[in-house]
Amino acid sequence: MIGGGWAGLAAAVDLSAQGHRVCLLEARRSLGGRARSIVVSGTELDNGQHLMLGAYKATLNLLTRLGVDPFTVMERHRLCLYMRRRGMAPLSFSVAPLPAPFNLLGGMLRCQGLSLGERSKTVLAISRFLASRPSSRGMQTAAAALVQVGTPASAQRDLFAPLCLAALNIDLDRADANLFRDTLRRVFLSRRSCSDLLIPSAQLTAIVAEPALHYLERQGVDLRLGVKVTGLKLDDGGVRAVQVSDSTVPVKAIVIAANPVAAQRLLPPAMQTAFSYRRSPICTVYLKYPEPVNLEAPMVGLVGYRAQWLFDRSVCHQPGWIAAVISGWGPEGPAQRTELEARVTGELERLYPDWPPPMLCRAITERHATYRATPEAERTRPAYETGIPGLLLAGDYTATGLPATLEGAVESGVQCAKLLAQCSPPRER
Ligand SMILES: Cc1cc2nc3c(=O)[nH]c(=O)nc-3n(C[C@H](O)[C@H](O)[C@H](O)COP(=O)(O)OP(=O)(O)OC[C@H]3O[C@@H](n4cnc5c(N)ncnc54)[C@H](O)[C@@H]3O)c2cc1C
Question: Considering the entire predicted model, what is its pTM?
Fold first, then answer.
């Protein structure tokens, strides 16, 4: 296994549980990849605020297998979107307590901040959008598809654009329509609980990386941290070994669960995928206040501001900490760390004038947070199987049908473990 992010961990857990001998090589000295904890001014925070959903079936299964009760590490909330809009009254949408899809449609009819006409048009438009087939041209953006079904501009700007940024990490007018539609279907057209928000109440490392480390150690997995794979040894019969600094590790199969750039570098030139990769960043601005401060809802959306979503870290037992998230840079484009810190601090001062000034503000930008989910990228996401026997690709960018998320990463790992298990029986350990 190359890579100890959530994809590599999920694959290693499943393969070792089936009795396969597994070696996991991770370049960093810690597990978790793009979902890990870091220390900021003596406080353990995450490399970025993460949010999960009730629809994250593979992730919830992984936690159960690791012996983690999901609801000791996450808070479950019924989906409620409270959007503060610059110069306008807030918009508030929450799913109705009805079976899907009436939870969505009923919630939309009661949405505060849209007129009756806008609400009725939005119900019709979203029903048409969810029922529509993938565009035959396959190159439609989510914005174009929503316009085509008659979505009012207000709902598009204040509801669907923020949802698209949160779910796909890309603006609505560049996002792939099919991926956005499939994501909304998974969340709103399945069980009612699929739309629940699962907000981490523990640091990310404590949710998966640490329990996985203990699990894999108990399973006898050969875990090597701080070991970067520099090449693969392949021949006509398949994979033979992986190269790490000045030695080789003989193997019978390889799952490359590295990020897309590293994975592409490891593949031989003739095997490189046609994946049209462009990065999309996520910046989390952490603010520490001298006393606990309260948001109107567990997460608050901002429309017309640089920050897009606010999270109260008291959920994570960190009262007084607020995480402000900016996905994909937003319409204003890239900015320096200090500029973002000053901008977000100023926005929160104006939005919450009763709060004291923050004692600390730190922006953490993950420049390669996810791939950019454009129609071009979606058409070229690589499959798990590479064509070389025993060489598989896992990771949030592979063709999971899901956006680049924790759930996509875990699902890819689970599928790779299944594929490997089909072609090689477990060996004696
Ligand atoms: C700031 C931020 C916020 C996010 N918010 C959310 C959210 O709210 N909800 C959500 O579901 N998702 C969110 N995501 C996305 C989610 O974190 C990723 O989709 C997921 O973590 C990707 O996991 P992965 O295992 O596919 O890849 P990675 O986590 O990138 O794991 C790959 C691993 O491979 C290792 N590696 C690379 N090259 C080598 C090599 N040559 N040898 C050995 N090891 C190597 C890397 O060090 C890394 O540990 C967010 C991401 C970021 C960055």
Answer: 0.96
